[in-house]
Amino acid sequence: MPKRALSEHRPYLLASLAAAISYFFVMDSAIGGIWLMAWKGAGVAFLALYAAHRGKGVDAALIALVMAFGALGDVLLEISFLVGGGLFAVGHIIAIALYMRNRRTHPTGSQTMAGLALVALTPVVAALMTYPLPNWQTATGYSLLVGAMAACAWTSSFPRYRVGSGAVLFVVSDLLIFARETGHISQELGSWLVWPIYYGAQFLIVTGVVQTLRTRAA
What we know:
Elements: H1 2-9, H2 11-26, H3 33-54, H4 57-76, H5 81-101, H6 109-130, H7 136-154, H8 160-181, H9 187-217
Helix pairs in contact: 1-2, 2-3, 3-4, 3-9, 4-5, 4-9, 5-7, 6-7, 6-8, 7-8, 8-9
């Protein structure tokens, strides 16, 4: 019955899971080219369609845009880290706007401190890993934006243990990319860790936001 409900009422989630899980097993294959790039982008692209289909209103449109820019970033990262990262940066700015529209009225002290820690520590860790390599400043600036996105998610009125945790996992996935590219962890380990953590982050974020919006509307 749960599988039937998923396929009948949330087909985009089912398609997203199928694309993302299958991509994990073929990402290092010899298929290559545009087909593998499209396969990679499909997981989060279906999450964007899920948000557009299941959500209503401005906030639903914003989270759909966040996922859409994420899907484009997934594809273009295979061509250029700067272009792909730029698309993700646009998505993070939209996400910050979404979370600021839905700020928690009375965050606790621990929630506020966690948000500040995400903003402060994410770019510091990125800088320590990438300095003095070329474009370390770009990586640090981008990480500041990612940390701000995660901080806004954590202190928003959306569920912390879905949307907030998903945003924190996004931070982890990006830092793992930097660690892999700078040789702090092996390419093999990085490849095995980054995709499931990143996709899990996006899945938690979009389902948490959409289901919260639907509950409020009801």
